[in-house]
Amino acid sequence: MASTLTKLLVHVAFSTKHRTAIIPDSIEPELYAYIGGICRRMDSPLLAMNGTADHVHLLVSLAKTIALADLMLNIKRDSSKWLKDKDAAMSDFAWQQGYFAFSIGESSREALLTYIANQKQHHQSTDFRDEMRAYFRKYGIEWDELHVWD
Hints:
With 150 residues, the chain is an alpha+beta fold. The chain is built from six helices and four strands, in the order E-H-E-E-H-E-H-H-H-H. It is globular.
């Protein structure tokens, strides 16, 4: 019997609701580890994660049996609950409704790992919306400014 072999690398980015700068630096390592656990549970290893106080980027190796929408539902739902339980100051925390996801090839992996690692420096001069607009253009994604942000 033939095996099914896949390598589906996905760059995912999503923000806090209304891009509120609410994620403290001090909680990032635990948050990223928690999200890594969700990914492992869903057989979709988290290869890299980083972000700022208002958004995160992930590089995930998506399992052949998991839909990206299911993975994202679990990541956002479970991490939101975890953040609220972790700190009373985060009781109103919410992620944006949607997310942005882009498939990448193995040849782009190292550059993306570097990009994700350097998020804080990158966002000293570029905001999240401009960053995502650049990705939309790069990947030929049409968008409507009225409906892409919440």
